[in-house]
Amino acid sequence: MIEKAVAGATPACWICQAPIPSNHAGDKLCGRRECAWDYRLLQQRQKLCRVCGRPLSLAELPARLCATLDCQRAGLADFSRQVAERKQARTKALIEQEIAQATQLHQQLMSDFGFGKPEAFPLVVVPAFTAKLVNLPQRRRRAFRDHVTALIAQSAEPAKTPSARNRQNESSPVPEPASNVRAVLGMACSCCKGRCCESGGDHAYLDVETLRRYRTAHPEQRPRDVLAAYLDRLGPRTYEGSCIFHQGDGCALSRDMRAEICNRHYCKALLSFQQNAPAVGTVSAFFAAADLGAV
User: Which ranges constitute the DSSP H helices of the chain?
Assistant: First the structure.
């Protein structure tokens, strides 16, 4: 084990532990040829810390990191970066694979059905939700009940003054798609089957503003009636790992009970499709749902 230098002590050679001569101040080695040779040998055998270059003990060799805190932190940051880069590269490769498969399928079906102008049915690749339906556990029901109970109590309190960001969002709401586009978007979402619902968990994206909006629309309902209205929408089965209201036939909540994000959200593919879709007339497209490189 390499001895740790004490603050204020004379720096020692990383190889022989002899004090560093004044003419080698700032160096990590004492200047002897033997130490320089041993250090190069350790370097060739990858037995130096990959952050600071310190010779490693036997226990430190697997990670090629010495035990100093700075090097451990730097090593962890580097590992996290590598993991993120590998994940990003894998995701990019899967997306490219999905697009290639969808393009081939698009061309084949356009040819099989005799469409002379395949560009009239532009290809749009949307995510696909492929989880399985499972029984809804009681623990999830309890967690949702507690969440909504807290929101109902908070919704009775006066609303706080909206922040500048919220005021900006209210002054420039996301425009609703035209009716002809909305119908096509609905079919595209049914093709996806709810990938955007995946993060809904036991909260279903519900917040205080959602409950305030619902209670304003239903002033006759008391707090316990509001709670019952939401609990009554829970079904016996839901998709595994998804929103508690994500059921086999879609969202169990009516639009007036959903969070604003649920009524407004579209994935990137559908947002791009909306921008290029005609405002009037017939809207057509070829939608392909893909997940993990498979269409």
Answer: 33-44, 69-112, 138-155, 164-171, 179-192, 208-217, 223-231, 260-264, 268-276
> For residue 287, which phi and psi values (nearest 5 degrees)?
-95, 135
Residue 206 has, within 13 A of its CA and on its CB side, a CA count of 31
In 3D space, the residue among 287, 116, 145 whose CA is nearest the CA of residue 224 turns out to be: 145
* Rama region for 159: left / alpha / beta (φ>0; ψ in -120 to 50; rest): beta
H helices of 115-160, where?
Answer: 138-155
Q: How many residues does the chain have?
A: 295
Q: Which residues pair with 291 in a beta bridge?
A: 294
Please tell me the pTM assigned to this model: 0.65
CB 294 within 8 A of CB 98: yes
Contact 58, 48 (CB under 8 A): no
- Cα separation, 76 vs 198, in Å, equals 30
Q: What phi, psi does 19 have (nearest 5°)?
A: -60, 145
Tell me the backbone φ, ψ of residue 154, rounded to 5 degrees: -70, -30
Cβ atoms 221, 213 nearer than 8 A: no
How does pLDDT run along the chain (295 residues), one tens digit per residue? 444 444 456 789 999 999 988 888 888 999 899 999 999 999 999 999 999 999 999 989 988 999 999 999 999 899 889 888 888 888 888 888 888 898 888 888 888 888 877 778 889 888 888 899 999 999 999 999 999 999 999 998 887 765 444 544 444 455 677 777 888 888 888 888 888 899 999 999 999 999 999 999 999 999 999 999 999 999 999 999 999 999 998 999 999 999 999 988 888 888 888 888 877 778 888 988 888 767 7
**Pairing mode of beta strands 286-290, 123-127:** parallel
| Tokens at 198, concatenated | 């995946």
